[in-house]
Write a structure and sequence with these properties.
With 212 residues, the chain is mainly beta. It has three helices and twelve strands, in the order E-E-E-H-E-E-E-E-H-E-E-E-E-H-E.
């Protein structure tokens, strides 16, 4: 299995001895040793992935890296967070997935209105199995625990990823922009219930606070 380690907080070093990793296209910044690179279309594997890409128009650019040595990945000086999976499934926004062990299965799942409102399609990327994945955040991410006693509301523009047995509900509500008079549309939030972890970044993508 490839070995993932962080060099600081913004560069990922992946040591390989013949293994394969999947990485965001264009994210390789340097490598040592002998590596091969193959571009692949993203959005999931197999027939379901093909159908998803056709329905949404999404073309997540992924490259497959294989070799002996160390490959370094980064993306626009974004912070990198390592996630170790032991048979679980990681749900992550496609733009926030930097790299995943080749043994992990990737796919897509329907996310409903949140994806539509954000303009990111109606699907979120899934990563499943045993291995490591690296996800990106704009600023240092926080990891929030959700339990049956403590549900969590998240601004959709700040959401990165989640793991565990969680249910998502999309609800209208007041966000901070609305409170200070900067919101011009209907705001909404993602409510997580169940048992799991949610990764949140201290910045919003281009959704302007999750407005519809």
């Amino acid at each position: 299995m490839a070995q993932f380690r962080l060099q600081g907080s913004k560069v990922l070093a992946v040591a390989m001895t013949g293994e394969t990793v999947k990485a965001k296209n264009g994210a390789m910044v340097a490598y040592e040793g002998e590596m091969t690179f193959k571009k692949k279309s993203g959005g999931g594997e197999g027939l379901r992935g093909m159908v998803t890409r056709r329905l949404t128009g999404e073309q997540m650019a992924v490259m497959e890296v294989k070799g002996h040595g160390t490959c370094y990945f980064a993306d626009r000086a974004s912070e990198i967070n390592l996630v170790s999976l032991h048979g679980e499934k990681l749900y992550v926004e496609a733009e926030n997935l930097l790299c995943a062990d080749g043994a992990l299965r990737t796919g897509t799942t329907f996310t409903g209105l949140r994806g539509s409102a954000q303009g990111n399609g109606l699907f979120t990327t899934t990563v499943e199995g045993t291995g490591q994945a690296a996800i990106l955040s704009d600023g240092t991410a926080i990891v929030l625990r959700v339990t049956p006693q403590t549900p969590l509301q998240v601004d959709p523009g700040a959401y990165i990823a989640h793991t565990g047995n969680l249910q998502q509900h999309f609800q209208s509500g007041v966000n901070f922009r609305a409170l200070i008079g900067e919101s011009g549309g209907e705001s909404f939030q993602i409510r997580f219930e169940g048992d799991g972890l949610v990764y949140v970044q201290p910045s919003e993508r281009n959704t302007v606070g999750g407005e519809l």
